[in-house]
Amino acid sequence: MLVKLRTYIVEDNATIRENLIGALQELAQIEAVGTAETEDDGKAWLSEHASQWDLAIVDLFLRQGSGLGVLAACRNRLANQKMVVLSNYATPDVRMRCAQLGVDAVFDKSNEIEALVDYCIAHSHTRVGAARAGSLAN
């Protein structure tokens, strides 16, 4: 049973966003359910569609606002929903701040894309297991 990982991406660089979506759809079987370029748009969509995403990938520096605001707005997400940061500024201080906001993982855009793909694959397997358990219970 193929269950695609419903992924929302908050990234203001169109080239990075489209390349990321293409790579993750091909390599990690994600389904891009939406995108945002600003903090306000990201927070609004993620909260208004609270049960319609499994993974949010958030850049920290956005056209308007900050990815940190998006992360803070999603602190009380469902237990199976994952928040990850993909940033050029994955410094130890940034990683610590993200951890304080309940982020599940931080990836550096310059050298950790493969790790992000692996993370998505692992999380999609977790979601498949949960979907199977739910269908068995019915």
UniProtKB/TrEMBL annotation:
What Pfam family is a match for this entry? Response_reg
Please report the name of this protein according to its UniProt entry: Response regulator receiver domain-containing protein
Residue positions, PTM 4-aspartylphosphate: D59
Domain (Response regulatory) ranges: 6-124
Matching PANTHER family, A to Z?
HTH-TYPE TRANSCRIPTIONAL REGULATOR YHJB-RELATED (PTHR45566)
Top-level taxon in the UniProt lineage = Bacteria
A biological process from GO:
phosphorelay signal transduction system
Q: Which InterPro entries match?
A: CheY-like_superfamily (IPR011006), EvgA-like (IPR051015), Sig_transdc_resp-reg_receiver (IPR001789)
Keywords for the protein's UniProt record, in alphabetical order:
Phosphoprotein
